[in-house]
Amino acid sequence: MKKLVKEIESLKKEKDAVILAHYYVPDEIQEIADYIGDSYYLSELATKVPQNTIVFCGVSFMGESAKILNPQKTVLLPEPTADCPMAHMAEAEHIRKLREETEDLAVVCYINSSAKLKAVSDVCVTSSNALKIVAALPNKNILFIPDEHLGRYIASLLPEKNFIFNPGYCHVHASIQKENLIQLMWEKKAAKVLVHPECPMEIIELGDYVGSTSGIIEYATNSNAKEFILCTETGVTHELLRRNPNKIFHSVEVKQICPDMKKITLEKVHHTLKTGENEVLIHEDLRQQTYKPLERMLELAK
Ligand code: 13P
Ligand code: SF4
């Protein structure tokens, strides 16, 4: 393992590469990453890093977004089959039809989406900037794709807008059961409940804090509380414990795990760096269509 890490380090220098990782990837990947963060942080950072090659340790929409924003860079995915199922849970045709039928409509696309869906959208959002961006849109009607739960949460905070939802969901966050959360809250009375907005509303309503993975980590780090219940993927525990070794973090379910994020291994990072295999390639027409909503997100999130 040490040998592999050393080889990754020297390959990084040789290939002028930087490693970006999401908080849900395995601990050993977070440890070798140059930067770890939530989806917004990583997509913005991808536009600023000086290296010519970005190794994106996350699911494919993350690497795809980095490539769309930086066509001149080489973006490598250690495991191209690591894909977010929710990214495909909407129909481009249906969106086009709704756009024709609905006046004063903005199509707001969660960044957890395929390039095909981004291409038919007006603006992208992440969990950390969705509220700010949707609030700033001049449109009365908002079609929020693909995540229904994040859409409903944002809608609950913006009653002046009229939302149309799409039945997409994250299987990891949707698997958290309200009864199990209530039971755990009863057992750990002093614990603060930290919720990712991909959870259903009945879980969100029980949260002391609702926000992105970075937001959850910041909140727990700055809180005086010593114990927390996590309603998100348990990969965040690595950074939470690194920053807060004396605090305790519980998950609600035995398996709050994203199997796709866990497909990233050191061997695969080494392989993609060494061979250049699994490069993200996007047809220029599609890239231009998807660039606009991502660019608009970066602009409106400032
Ligand atoms: P964040 O942007 O909060 O890191 O969320 C990404 C994600 O995939 C959550 O499931
Ligand atoms: Fe997709 Fe859910 Fe995995 Fe995030 S945790 S990448 S939303 S399946």
UniProtKB/TrEMBL annotation:
Protein name stated in the entry: Quinolinate synthase
Keyword Iron-sulfur: yes
Cofactor requirements of the protein: [4Fe-4S] cluster
SUPFAM superfamilies: NadA-like (SSF142754)
EC number: 2.5.1.72
InterPro entries: NadA, NadA_sf
Pathway: Cofactor biosynthesis; NAD(+) biosynthesis; quinolinate from iminoaspartate: step 1/1
An example Gene Ontology molecular-function term: transferase activity
Keyword terms, alphabetized: 4Fe-4S, Iron, Iron-sulfur, Metal-binding, Pyridine nucleotide biosynthesis, Transferase
Stretch forming the signal peptide: none
Enzyme class per UniProt: transferase
Entry-linked NCBIfam families: nadA (TIGR00550), PRK09375.1-2 (NF006878)
Domain of life: Bacteria
